[in-house]
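Quick question, first post here. What does this chain look like in 3D?
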Amino acid sequence: MLKRFRPDDPVFLGQLEARLAAALRHAGNLEAGLLSVTLAVPEIPLEFMPAGLDEAFYWSRPSAGRSLLGLGAAAEIQADGVERWCLLKDAFAAWQARWQHEDIDATGLQPLALGGFGFAPQAADADFPAARLRVPALLLRREGDISALTFTFAAGAVALEPAMQRMRRLASAMAQPPCEKQDQVSRRDAGDGEDSAWLARVADAVADIQSGRLDKVVLTRSVRLSAAQPFDPACVMANLAKRHQRCTLFGVAMPAGGMFMGASPELLAGLRNGETYCDALAGTAWDRGGASARNLLADMKNGREHRLVVQSIAEALRPVCARLEVPAAPVALHLGHLHHLWSGLRGRVKPGIGLLDLLERLHPTPAVGGYPPRAALEWLAQHGENRSGWYTGAVGWMDAAGEGEFAVALRCAQVRGTQAELYAGAGIVAGSEPHHELAETEAKLLPMLHALGHFREEHD
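> Answer (accepted):
Ran it through. Tokens below.
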């Protein structure tokens, strides 16, 4: 029987160090900008996120055969306020202009910048800036059958030993046995007062929609969990990965400890070889029966909500696309106990358009904000809508050419120590009934509740 490869094997690490040292000697002095060295490695599973890694950024789309794990920062830009998109684009363009890449084994995999942004232009709390892009010092990437490591260095900081120390920490973490089941936890409900206030906001929104002030607005709420022992983010992510293979899995370490993590069903935008692709996901049912999906397709309220999202995405993309394909009708997407109306929009972007340009135009879609966008955002501000961290923003990656993928930060939670805060929202349109919308948010909380150990296996 062949011996199973272990990333912490001293022989492997010694060979890796020798190859990296040779590549750095070949690259010569780095006077400015960034240097990335990519080395192919034996197949390293990335289905789950390793435990105990600081500054980790984990991303996986199992359905696309794509996973990555970034550690540390060779370069970073944080941007806050209405200028955040300009700041991100300027910083990324500066990196591109002086980004040397040595793809030693011709993997075809470029170095990446990893990042995310919040719903609003201003940071919602101290845990995350309004927007951030970070070039990881160490990147483990799996693309189909190819596994590779990319080491990135900034000018003045090209040093072998710190890079290998980080690699040894990663190898040690990946060699640990898979996480066991998360312990049971208790839920601290908001209580009748907070639920009543949320229901009243839904009623206010319906009244303003009926008056013609706006067509749709998305209201969100949160719940908190407590555990006797600290949550294990790696275990939570493993639970998500087992159940949500058709979603985008993400985990981003928070500066003060803990992790922002989730399993998003919705891709805000992707760009690959000049082709963009976006999800329009709006309209939800949560009955497990097949009749629920059929009823969802025929439901006028959910259909109206979905069309607003498709219309808004198409309006945002048309000016920057030479070709745009908009489906005539949605399909029912089945994800666990939930059914969603889904339309996939695709287009060919015009020359000079990058992923950041698309994100700027698309965010926030009516799936997380409302319609018309300006009226919905004004309504949310006036009614005290508050969204923590990057919830209903997006998390994703870009390669050195400016292409990549960002998923809407949904079905997610902030997990720190023995505490976890979970988020969910519901789109309010004409005909929305407050208690039904509250029930929808409860249904959307279930994936993270399960992953965090709130339900026993027989209830899954």
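Residues 17 and 164 are 7 Å apart (CA to CA).
The longest helix spans residues 192-210.
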